[in-house]
Amino acid sequence: MPDLVLPGALHHAHVHLDKCYLLDACCSLGDGTFDEALKKTSAAKAHFTQADVEARGARFIAAALAHGVVGMRAHVEVDPTVSHLCLQAGLSLRQRFASRCAVVLCAFAQDALFYPDAAYEAHMHELLRSAASHEGVGAVGCAPYVEASRHNSLRALQFIFDLAQEFGRDVDLHIDYTLDPASPLLWDALAMLKQHTWLVHGRTRRLTLGHATVISTFAEQDLDRLARECKGEEVAFVALPHSDLYMQGRDVEYSRRSRATLPALDLARRGVRVAVDVNNVGNLFTPQGDGDPLALLPMLVGVYQDATPDSLELLLQMVTTNAAYAAGFPSPASPLEPRAIDLAAELGAEGTATLLHDCASVQEAVLAPPHGRTAWRNGRKVAERKVESWVAEEDQ
């Protein structure tokens, strides 16, 4: 059987290197709520060491390579509890894996940016500003929904946009992680994008919006409006279904519960760039999964109730070219089409790609992703996972 090559390769659009694999280490699961995840993870952060964060992050990147991933946008938290510990660990991992997996760091504020305590607030701002100035950081971001008021949420957005413009970084936001359709912040973020223009490594700045689960409550006219607002803009949304489905809608009767992850196919058909990713692995926000972005796709076929050929193509783009765009990587000069090849040796000239073993079509890749894979980056094989199986002979 031929193999299927995915030019451009699998990418992670949104992962947290500093918060992976905490479930076994220090965070026991209680009621499984978002508040519990925030509180227990915040408490765990007080005991982080750089060696610990690097060890868990290295485990994640090594697993990603085995899955066929060759690039990622990795959020590292910055706040008075960890200071730049997570950032320094991320910078070390970025350098350590540079020839095998490109890591684009986002200096990320999970905690609020604005406080009644002026000194604490100033310290938070200075830590994030210092992180944004580091040449190894590609993006800055925050989670405006954790602020104490909508007014402060808007201030947080403005702070991040100003910071990104000052240091020439992309903006990557966790936004509208809710099913409450009242006053989404994404409209404000898009308006700020249009008001701010700057360059990032010679190209136009980008805005990446993660979660945005409120979009799952949008009517058709709201989706149409969103497509109009995004048209011509350097913006991408990232659905994070493992976390979104696990966390959202718990207070709603099951029979009336939203699917709770943004309608990626509906947006993609309207011309909006959408990626999908795993968000976390082995922690209170995302206890399930092994970090394989391709493994999300069969689940999403069920969530979106759509396995048509065009939709399967769109879903595959969400973990390859669209994921790379959302993570801040250069856009390809021309469309990259998956194709079957007979010899893996042909791949050497492809540059960067993921090879799916014994997979003849996009349909197979999306509906039943093969476990065997090879990752190539810049013409070099950087990881391979082979499958051996054995079945006992029939009893006589």
From TrEMBL:
UniProt keywords, alphabetically: Hydrolase
Domain Amidohydrolase per the UniProt entry, residue ranges: 147-330
This protein's record includes keyword Hydrolase: yes
SUPFAM superfamilies found in the cross-reference section: Metallo-dependent hydrolases
GO MF terms held by the record: hydrolase activity, acting on carbon-nitrogen (but not peptide) bonds, in cyclic amidines
Transmembrane segments: none
PANTHER family reported for this sequence: CYTOSINE DEAMINASE
Name of the protein in its database record: Metallo-dependent hydrolase
